[in-house]
Write a structure and sequence with these properties.
With about 325 residues, this protein is an alpha/beta fold. The chain has eight helices and nine strands. Strand 6, helix 5 and strand 7 form a beta-alpha-beta unit. This is Glycine reductase.
Length: about 325
């Protein structure tokens, strides 16, 4: 019906739907020769912590999977290829009164359709400060927090999420905005949102991988149907970024119950064709598959070394990584 009568009835293209990231990733890594598909976290029940006071009186923080720029760790700038050397493996925090140079070269954003040239698309701290100045929310907490993108759910839950909760409680945070980038980032921030809610802190996840976040199960989710790496708005478009944060705050404030998803009305462009490309094995040649396998094995070996040096007690690495 959509393809046959779309023009007649004004239907959108059949491809204009959220990307099925979990299935794409499964097929992609099977094509690369990894025989054990990644098992995503999945919950039947979801915690939900209502705001205990009006949002304009709530202290709000940001949890990000972006990494501080590390000189000497290779290309981390706009358009950089995947850079495993720039990854981080422990929770970090930063002063929200200052500007920070955070990058996302260490995770699998959609590099064909976005370049990460504008940090406002993945780290909305400046916009959050402006919202607080307008009185839309209460004060920004004194620190934001960096959450590692870890494919080990045990490590994420028992180490990283626990540390995020400890730091947020130390800062007397009332609410948290968690911003995801790559596919596993979406799982990580979803697990952190659940941990924060369980400990009395209301949350909203901002992301672009709808299937992953909803499969994990979170209290509140603002979905932007944009290429990965743009959960906070379109690049070089302050109006888009302001509108996206405003929607996230609306969801934080008004969600009636757990598993509330709101889709941003903003679109990436006139055509939805960009959705056909990300890790789509039907559009990748056999030669390119072989090249990607070799590059992935090299990056995985580097990541293993970095992980062992960073966390000797958590060095176990699964056979493949859907980053």
């Amino acid at each position: 019906m959509t393809s046959a009568h779309g023009d007649r009835f004004g239907f959108a293209s059949a491809d204009d739907a959220p990307i099925p990231y979990m299935q794409r990733i499964r097929d992609y890594y099977l094509a690369l020769g990894y025989g054990e598909p990644y098992s995503w976290a999945h919950y039947a029940t979801v915690p939900f912590q209502p705001l205990q006071k009006p949002l304009k009186h709530c202290r709000v923080t940001i949890v990000t999977t972006a990494a501080p720029y590390q000189p000497g760790k290779g290309d981390q700038g706009p358009g950089a290829a995947y850079n495993a050397a720039a990854k981080f493996y422990t929770v970090y925090s930063g002063d929200t009164s200052q500007d920070h140079d955070l990058r996302i070269s260490h995770v699998a954003i959609d590099r064909k359709h976005t370049t990460a040239e504008d940090s406002g698309t993945y780290f909305p701290l400046p916009e959050m400060r402006r919202a607080a100045e307008r009185g839309r929310s209460g004060p920004v907490a004194r620190r934001f927090h960096g959450l590692p993108t870890n494919r080990s759910q045990r490590t994420t839950l028992e180490v990283d999420c626990a540390e995020i909760v400890t730091r947020c409680r130390s800062d007397a945070v009332d609410a948290a905005i968690l911003v995801a980038n790559c596919p596993v980032c979406h799982q990580s921030v979803s697990l952190a949102a659940r941990a924060l809610e369980t400990n009395g802190i209301a949350t909203v996840v901002m992301g672009c991988a709808k299937d992953i976040v909803e499969f994990v199960g979170v209290p509140r989710f603002l979905f932007s149907d944009f290429p990965l790496g743009n959960a906070a708005g379109r690049p070089n478009d302050l109006a888009s970024q302001a509108a996206t944060l405003q929607l996230a705050l609306d969801v934080l404030e008004r969600a009636p119950a757990a598993r509330t998803t709101v889709q941003s009305p903003l679109v990436w462009g006139a055509s939805p064709d960009w959705k056909l490309d990300y890790q789509n094995v039907d559009r990748i040649s056999a030669e390119d598959i072989a090249r990607r396998r070799a590059e992935f094995d090299k990056a995985k070996a580097l990541a293993r070394t970095l992980r062992e040096n960073a966390k000797p007690d958590q060095a176990a690495v699964p056979r493949h990584d859907p980053l």
